[in-house]
């Protein structure tokens, strides 16, 4: 049981310069007994309102250096404070505020909402067990207008999809990775590096791009690029929900439409998912 959607903004000041972290926190506990479920005995139950207040107090006392560190702080607090807690799990996602720039100059206290992928993390711990940290990015919308196709696929009497060697590749990406047992990582640096790897693998070199023969191959390229470039990542899950575009037929309007005007196909949409990990970690 626990408390979901604990939303708040943490303001940090350094002189005249302000820093903000707005987050949504979900914290769940499992107790060492289940008397509250079986017998209606609530003597060991930490009220969900108390859980909420603890999260807010920790934000006040510790600040939010990184999402991951704040999740670790929450887990460690419940494990060290309450002997009846057998397991704790915390999920945190960040509201994407970015500092406002005016003529290239960063503003000291103004921000803009820039939803260019939502950062999130999870931390979980069993009593007498390791504290495990996950992190990720979701709702990252990606598009490239060429260097993508889909050919040579299986066909039968139900197949109507034509082969294409030049199409728009568009999707909304969810990516979640595991650090394994928690260590003293620079979580901000790693998260930014992984986001950079996602964009590099999706788009290819800026002057020419890189051909994608399928959404599945693109998903695998993203995972391989991250595992090669970021040694702290042990297992990575990627889901790419596809958005397809159809070329508008303008013959009746007396025009030739050479893939210049397209409309998105809202539903149904395709989805590709894959989980990939280091062999040494998976065998452990």
UniProtKB/TrEMBL annotation:
Binding site for O2: 48, 242
SUPFAM superfamilies per the UniProt record, alphabetical: Tetrahydrobiopterin biosynthesis enzymes-like
Record keywords, A-Z: Oxidoreductase, Peroxisome, Purine metabolism
Protein origin, superkingdom: Eukaryota
E.C. number: 1.7.3.3
Record-level GO cellular component terms: peroxisome
Enzyme class, spelled out: oxidoreductase
Pathway as given in its UniProt record: Purine metabolism; urate degradation; (S)-allantoin from urate: step 1/3
GO molecular function: urate oxidase activity
Binding site for 5-hydroxyisourate: 48-49, 150, 167, 216, 242
Catalytic activity: urate + O2 + H2O = 5-hydroxyisourate + H2O2
InterPro entries: Uricase
GO biological process per UniProt: purine nucleobase catabolic process; urate catabolic process
Residue sites binding urate per the record: 48-49, 150, 167, 216, 242
Places the protein is found: Peroxisome
Statement: the UniProt record of this protein carries the keyword Iron-sulfur: no
Protein family: Belongs to the uricase family.
Role summary: Catalyzes the oxidation of uric acid to 5-hydroxyisourate, which is further processed to form (S)-allantoin.
Identification of the protein by name: Uricase
Gene source species: Eolophus roseicapilla (Galah cockatoo)
Gene (name only): Uox
């Amino acid at each position: 049981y626990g408390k979901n959607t604990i939303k708040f903004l943490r303001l940090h000041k350094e002189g005249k310069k302000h820093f903000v972290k707005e987050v949504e926190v979900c914290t769940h506990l499992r107790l060492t007994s289940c008397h509250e479920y079986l017998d209606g005995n609530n003597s060991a139950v930490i009220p969900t309102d108390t859980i909420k207040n603890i999260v807010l107090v920790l934000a006040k006392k510790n600040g939010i250096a990184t999402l991951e560190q704040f999740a670790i702080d929450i887990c460690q607090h419940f494990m060290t404070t309450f002997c009846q807690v057998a397991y704790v799990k915390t999920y945190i996602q960040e509201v994407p505020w970015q500092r406002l720039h005016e003529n290239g100059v960063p503003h000291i206290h103004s921000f803009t909402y820039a939803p260019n992928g939502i950062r999130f993390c999870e931390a979980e711990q069993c009593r007498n067990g390791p504290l495990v940290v996950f992190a990720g990015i979701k709702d990252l919308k990606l598009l490239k207008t060429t260097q993508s196709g889909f050919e040579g696929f299986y066909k039968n009497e139900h197949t109507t999809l034509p082969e294409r060697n030049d199409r728009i590749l568009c999707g909304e990406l969810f990516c979640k990775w595991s650090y394994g047992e928690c260590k003293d990582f620079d979580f901000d640096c790693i998260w930014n590096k992984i986001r950079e790897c996602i964009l590099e693998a999706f788009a290819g070199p800026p002057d020419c791009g890189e051909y994608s023969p399928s959404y599945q191959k693109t998903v695998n390229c993203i995972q391989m690029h991250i595992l090669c470039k970021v040694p702290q990542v042990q297992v990575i899950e990627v889901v790419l929900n596809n958005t397809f575009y159809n070329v508008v037929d303008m013959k009746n309007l007396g025009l030739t439409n050479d893939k210049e005007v397209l409309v998105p196909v809202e539903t149904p949409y395709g989805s590709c998912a894959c989980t990939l990990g280091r062999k040494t970690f998976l065998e452990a």
